[in-house]
Amino acid sequence: MAADMTEKQKMLAGELYRPGDHEIQADQAATKAWLVRYNAALAASAAERRVLLRERFAAVGEGAVIRPPFHCDFGFNISLGAGAFLNFDCVILDVVTVEIGDGAQIGPAVQIYTADHPRDLETRRSGVEFGRPVRIGADAWIGGGSIILPGVTVGEGAVVGAGSVVTRDVPPGATVAGNPARLIRKE
Predict the structure, then answer these.
(1) Known catalytic residues?
(2) Digitized pLDDT (tens) for each residue of the chain, 187 residues in all
(3) Start and end of every Maltose/galactoside acetyltransferase domain (predicted)?
(4) DSSP letters spanning the chain
(5) Label partner for 164 (CA 20 to 30 A): which of 86, 96, 147, 185?
């Protein structure tokens, strides 16, 4: 099956893919041009910036806000729920889907990674990569400077302490903190 797929199709499916592929590089170039426009819109209203987000993102709910500067790989793999908020300097490496639920609050300089690399040295040397989706539940709160690693789900209403590195799923309503993030409180 993977042999019949383009590199972009492999990427979107979470399979090993070659990031230097022409189609993938063209998509990233288009996103870079869009990011220049988006990040120049800092003084624009949140509603005006939502119009820009809708040009590139998979979904943008009413009242969703991303404060520039913002960076991502593609944009078209990102879905923002209604009232979701991302503060300044967030980075999303979105080689596969990133879903941010309604009312989620994401602090400044948070980094969300879906991009991953093979653990086997020889495979990694070949230059292939893959992605694992990230999901942030409704009303979750991610503290500033946190890093959410590939494949992680942060449950609805969960809290991630500032500066945490989240390597595993966070249950709904739980509070985690640290590096690696550990359970502090479970609702």
Answers:
(1) 117
(2) 567 999 999 999 999 999 999 999 999 999 999 999 999 999 999 999 999 999 999 999 999 999 999 999 999 999 999 999 999 999 999 999 999 999 999 999 999 999 999 999 999 999 999 999 999 999 999 999 999 999 999 999 999 999 999 999 999 999 999 999 999 988 7
(3) 8-62
(4) -GGGS-HHHHHHTT--B-TT-HHHHHHHHHHHHHHHHHHTTTTS-HHHHHHHHHHHSSEE-TT-EEPSSEEES-STTEEE-TT-EE-TTEEEE-SS-EEE-TT-EE-TT-EEE-EE--SSHHHHHTT-BEE--EEE-TT-EE-TT-EE-TT-EEPTT-EE-TT-EE-S-B-TT-EEETTTTEEEE--
(5) 96
